[in-house]
Design a protein that fits this description.
The chain is mainly α and 231 residues long. The protein has 9 helices and no strands.
């Protein structure tokens, strides 16, 4: 089975797969864990989460904080539900692969490849959206725990040695949940890029490059980052 898998893919397909994995993993490391992460949306957003947690502990009435957290959970839940439909659609396409092959036969720049290659491409796309689903559901669980932490937050006027560490814990849990949500959205971006592989591996490489550029501009060079970074 493995030998057949190695034989059906051309060297350009392997190159595209390696580029796909490198772009996704490399950008995630640089944007979320690299030395420049603090200057992007991840780092700036965490600073505001810390500020939110500090203000939350100062307030006696935390209904607004619970409502805001509910809005965040609704967004994550929407994408998780949408991803289920995407996965179901891809499973249906696997069952009707012949129709898809016929539909793309006349597309410009499209290559004629064996059925096994189409199955590999669809399985890659399925894996991307399954990964997104796991990210969204893990984000939902963390936001649920964040709601519990809001309920257990110290009362207003608590000693600083008790309130400040708890505020940072609140911010850390919120950031972890937001990070998982962000990773799920990122999977959507690379899933859209993977669609280009059905046409041509070089187009797949170009699409992944374009996704990295778009993500970088939004995470580090957008007007939103500049506004949030202002003193």
């Amino acid at each position: 089975m493995l030998q057949k898998f190695l034989e059906v893919l051309a060297w350009t397909d392997w190159l595209a797969l390696v580029w796909f994995a490198g772009c996704w993993a490399g950008y995630s490391v640089i944007a979320d864990r690299g030395i420049i992460a603090a200057r992007g949306l991840v780092g700036v957003g965490h600073n505001y989460r810390v500020l939110w947690a500090q203000r939350l502990i100062e307030r006696d009435n935390r209904v607004a904080d619970s409502a805001l957290t509910g809005n965040l959970q609704s967004s994550v839940s929407f994408f998780a539900n949408a991803t289920v439909f995407v996965i179901g659609g891809l499973m249906a396409v696997l069952g009707g692969l012949d129709q898809l092959m016929n539909a793309t036969r006349d597309l410009p720049f499209a290559r004629q490849v064996p059925r096994e290659v189409w199955e590999i491409k669809l399985l890659l796309l399925l894996w991307v959206f399954v990964t997104a689903y796991f990210k969204f559901t893990w984000s939902m669980r963390q936001f649920n725990l964040y709601c519990i932490l809001i309920g257990a937050a110290p009362a207003p006027g608590s000693p600083p040695e008790q309130a400040e560490p708890y505020a940072r814990k609140l911010a850390a849990v919120s950031s972890l949940a937001g990070e998982e949500f962000n990773l799920g959205i990122r999977a959507y971006y690379f899933g859209l890029a993977a669609l280009a592989w059905f046409i041509n591996p070089w187009l797949f490489i170009a699409a992944n490059t374009a996704v990295v550029v778009v993500l970088y501009l939004r995470d580090f060079r957008s007007r939103l980052v500049r506004v949030l970074s202002e003193p």
